[in-house]
Amino acid sequence: MNIYQEWGFTESPFQTKALEADEKGEALLVGRNSEIIKIQRRLHNPPKITSIEGANGIGKTSLINVAAYKCFKSFLESGNSPVIIPLNKNFQLNPSSFVEEFVNDVLMEVAQALIEHQSQLKKITGNLDTRHLNSWLNSPQIHSYSASISGLFGGGKINAINTSSGFSRSGFKKIVLDWLSELFPSHSSGGVLCVVDNLELLMTSNKAREFVEQLRDEILLSPGLRWVVCGALGVTYSVLSSPRIEGILHDPINIKKIDDECIEELWKSRIEYYAVISEPYMPLTIDSFRLLYEILNGNTRSVLSYSDNYCTWVSDNDQPQTKEEKEEYFQEWLDFESSKIFSSVSSFLRPRAWSVFDKLIELGGETSPGSFAEFGFRSYPAMRPSIKDLEDCGLVTSLQDDSDKRKKTILVTPKARLVHYHKHISNTQE
Ligand SMILES: Nc1ncnc2c1ncn2[C@@H]1O[C@H](COP(=O)(O)OP(=O)(O)O)[C@@H](O)[C@H]1O
Ligand SMILES: [Mg+2]
């Protein structure tokens, strides 16, 4: 049995998956108007690549997806170029990724999106250069390839190339790139939007720089593709510091937590979107949700995830009914949860690590290796063991050390915010 269904929702209003490039994503995204405009402005001013930096869980992927959807929707409504076509998935790189596989994966998705949208593209004339569009859409190639691709893969997702199907890998690559240059003859006609997400998964900024440099020659500059690269922990700044990339990447748009004034809207939009009855049961109140948002310093993913934890905890107990009861329950759960997390880390941390922790929180939860003096150290190597201890306990994250320390970010995690909350509460109670 699903607790949320029992309470009168279709499903959990606290799902932590990124919002997608669709109507639902658009309906649930709140407080990002200025960021959407910034992204759209960059997408409409190629050839430089858009880049986005921001903490994990802050809402980067959701923002890009919805921005892409809005671009496409406005094209469908107005017919004005440039047309930006979103893909059904974003791409990720990891230390064992190969450039060739990656390029292949991208082109597969691109082909799929073009085929999927061909009827919509056909309908639109507007200011688009229809000469190219029509010749592409009416070419015998698209019919035969879309037929063979959907035949081969059962009309579903294309996820492998079968060389016996009559076209080789390189043949396929050429066809898709040709389609793109026919469809989008100039930068101003638009492109298919490809998002490289979570660049920090490459683990070091050197690795990220190298990978993006390789992609630059392979595919980043191909006509008809618009790129967004997205990462956390300062990785996009590191990529930007490569002389080979500098000229082709916009300065990162730094995504911060959404404004406090938008929390109520975030709450309401989800409750309303998922409600099946007019007054579903919800043990969490908006004030408790807001408190959680404050404690977790606006990390949307963690706020949603802990809200869900609390609801699950309630479902195992008696259900509070009045606002006061609900808030009392919430406080009990919060004290229990934060003290549990505190106990799980406290025995591992030496006083020195604790003092780095406290200072880090005091500084807003973010620092870089260059700031060792503020923590009372003579050099970063002297501070490193404390950072490592905090990292091992899951209280901070950072990219692995390498030569580039300029923009490297050391960031506290949502777990650390709960630890701090617990410390703070016990201090004030003493
Ligand atoms: N502006 C927003 N409005 C509503 N929900 C959001 C917003 N930003 C993020 N979320 C929600 O927060 C969670 C994390 O967002 P996500 O985009 O995956 O973050 P990131 O990519 O930065 O790690 C998702 O569940 C998403 O639905
Ligand atoms: Mg993301």
From TrEMBL:
SUPFAM superfamilies: P-loop containing nucleoside triphosphate hydrolases, Winged helix' DNA-binding domain. It comes from Sulfidibacter corallicola. This is Uncharacterized protein. It comes from the Bacteria.
